[in-house]
UniProtKB/TrEMBL annotation:
Residues 4-62 form the SKP1 component POZ domain. Coiled coil: none annotated. Belongs to the SKP1 family. Keywords: Ubl conjugation pathway. Pathway: Protein modification; protein ubiquitination. Residues 103-149 form the SKP1 component dimerisation domain. This is E3 ubiquitin ligase complex SCF subunit sconC.
Amino acid sequence: MSQIIKVKTSDGETLDVPKNVAMESAHIKRAMEFASGSDEIKFDDIDSNTMKKVVEYCEYHNRVNQQEGIQERDIKQFDNAFVNMPNNLLFSVVTAAHYLEIKALLDLCCAKIASTLKGKSPEEIRAQYNIENDLTPDDIADIKTEASWLYQ
């Protein structure tokens, strides 16, 4: 088997990903065990921009894991810079990390999203993420009664 895995994305782009980088994904690792000699994996639900971001993260962390003397602050600096991306891409990366089973990436992206939500009211969150409020006034009143501690 080759040291390069060809990853075909939903928009038809094929990325050459070093095998050791691709193995950061538990999903890809399992897929390669059952691939019967093929070095190509197709992902119908992950577009090329998202996959490139996932590969960028995996390449960095794979390289760091193989080096000695890397400071934790350098890793955190990379991670903090990495998650500064448009919301639509961030949500796509979350979905991809979940599907690909890359726990550290999933945790990092979810923490970023959580930090943007902290201290905001439901109305502010809906406005920030363009979420339509489908609750009736009665639903809202029930929620405020049942979870009054949220509105203190």
